[in-house]
Design a protein that fits this description.
This protein has 206 residues and is α+β, with helices and mostly antiparallel strands. It is 44% helix and 24% strand. Strands 1, 2, 3, 4, 5, 6 and 7 form a seven-stranded antiparallel β-sheet that branches. The chain is globular.
Length: 206
């Protein structure tokens, strides 16, 4: 398995942090509120432990995920807590959420919010790496987190590890905090390490 130095991991974290900041700006404009971010947390997770390691809550979530095509073949996932995220939909489409919560409108709105966020973030990352990133259509499930990951993440028999990049995002003056996970299987470690080394040698991200 490829190993990363602390400096390389810090650099990768900063690249993804810049991308999520772009996404936060997009969300802030949608809901007219400040969005705060956590420091990215990077960890190597064995594929067999992926579900148990990532499920930080027993509450139901609305999870939105997109598959990222090669050369950065990986997953972008956003986990919205089910109850609090209804308010987020209300900020974006207040007329639709005026009465009883319409389940399909909620799912459609959360899917589109997730789509906007992931698109903004990965657009920034693509620019940094100097590559084109192709994305599948977003998919959303309302479920327990463990069931969501089992449905959405396909683990190849040859995949032993994932590099997980987790960032939390909070909406000002609300109780809403949700989580991003970028899951990079070990099949893209060579790509990530090569481009990280190239960028570190030329123009460090600041």
């Amino acid at each position: 398995m490829i190993s990363y130095s602390d400096e390389e991991l810090d650099f990768v974290a900063e690249i993804f942090n810049i991308g999520v900041n772009k996404a936060a700006e997009s969300l802030g404009a949608l809901v007219d509120r400040e969005i705060s971010l956590s420091v990215p947390n990077l960890s190597l997770i064995q594929a067999i432990d992926l579900v148990s390691e990532l499920c930080m809550t027993t509450d139901s979530v609305c999870g939105v995920f997109k598959r990222i095509a090669d050369p950065l073949g990986s997953y972008a996932v956003i986990l919205f807590p089910r109850r609090e995220s209804v308010k987020l939909v209300g900020y974006v489409v207040p007329s639709a959420m005026a009465g009883e919560e319409p389940a399909q409108i909620y799912v459609d709105a959360i899917t589109e919010i997730g789509n906007v966020l992931i698109g903004a973030c990965l657009g920034s990352i693509a620019d940094t790496f100097g590559i084109a990133i192709n994305l599948d259509a977003p998919v959303a499930y309302i479920d327990h987190p463990s069931d969501f990951f089992l449905k959405s993440i396909i683990i190849d028999d040859l995949c032993e590890y994932f590099l997980d990049i987790r960032i939390s995002m909070a909406v000002e003056n609300t109780s809403l905090t949700f989580y991003w996970d970028f899951l990079l299987p070990d099949s893209v470690f060579h790509f990530l390490k090569h481009h990280t080394a190239r960028l570190m040698a030329t123009s460090p991200v600041r």
